[in-house]
Design goal:
Probably involved in ribonucleotide reductase function. InterPro entries: Flavoprotein-like_sf, RNR_Ib_NrdI_bac, RNR_NrdI. Belongs to the NrdI family. By secondary structure, the protein is of the alpha/beta class. It has a single domain, classed as Flavodoxin domain (Rossmann fold), CATH 3.40.50. Helix content is about 30%, strand content about 25%. The chain has five helices and eight strands; from the N terminus they run βββαβββααβαβα. A five-stranded parallel beta sheet has the order 4-3-6-7-8, with helices on both faces. A three-stranded mixed beta sheet has the order 1-2-5. It is globular, with a radius of gyration of 15 Å. About 35% of the residues are buried.
Amino acid sequence: MTTPTISRNVRGRAGVEPLETDASLIYFSSASDNTHRFVSKLPVRSARIPLLTSEDTLRAVSPFVLVLPTYGGTSGKGAVPRQVIKFLNVEGNRRLLRGVIGAGNTNFGDTYCLAADIIAAKCNVPVLYRFELMGTSEDVDRVTQGLEEFWT
């Protein structure tokens, strides 16, 4: 398992300093930790978007791929987690986003990995891969190879 490179920004506001990361993979995982389990199997440096929206969000300082689950079940309402919206509301984070990998549940039909599709369309980046729940070993291999090719 790889650990993220995270440092404190010395220009925080009112004593609250946003976290900065140069990880090439940034992800959000809910309390279920399905996405976290998947990302922890990848041989890349990663950083996790905080679970609580009341916490400061990450600040990316280099290009990255975003991995996120889809919320909302079959309705698709609220598909993009609020924590990811907060993260992408930081202009610098949006500017450094290069691609999206979606996690989802095929039981939800047309809304499977909908959050990845929404982010890709809004930020004009590609959806690089989709996987179900915490992924399979084949998913891990494909994403590992795909990220190597993507970054070269």
